[in-house]
Amino acid sequence: MRNNRLTLKNRALGYLARREYAEAELYRKLQPFSESTLQLQELMHDLKAQGYLSDVRFAQQFIEVYSRRFGVRRISYELKQRGLSDETIAPFLDQLNAQEFEYARQVWEKRFGQFKKDVLEREKQKRFLQNRGFSYDSIQRLFSFLDESEE
Predict the structure, then answer these.
(1) What architecture (CATH level 2) is domain 1-53?
(2) Global pTM?
(3) DSSP readout, 93-141?
(4) pLDDT tens digits, 55-92
């Protein structure tokens, strides 16, 4: 039992050495290697107590990496899929909401580069941004901004 616990902890530390994990994500990843649920719960508690595992730190890193390519809706969905609670991610999403227009503009500029008056092309561009998780308001604001800058 003791040996298996060390092996499980070493496996967990190996995963955490490569990248941050959300608690639920790491739990699911280690579950096949654990002898009991209690053993895994104790390990997760120990990892959190020692500072190796933090949902807040995971959310910060995830948002930092993905905010340049995806909108708030997509990031929120991805974080919830990884087992983070609304309370954990809400402060980060509030901050990200304030910057979403600028990120949408950067993504649009990188992908399309130039503004076209063609309605079909504009709709295609809007769908692209929607699929990236940008809000309708940010997309509309971006296209209003682009319309104004063209005139």
Answers:
(1) Orthogonal Bundle (1.10)
(2) 0.82
(3) HHHHHHHHHHHHHHHHHHHT-S----HHHHHHHHHHHHHTT--HHHHHH
(4) 999 999 999 999 889 999 999 999 999 999 999 999 99
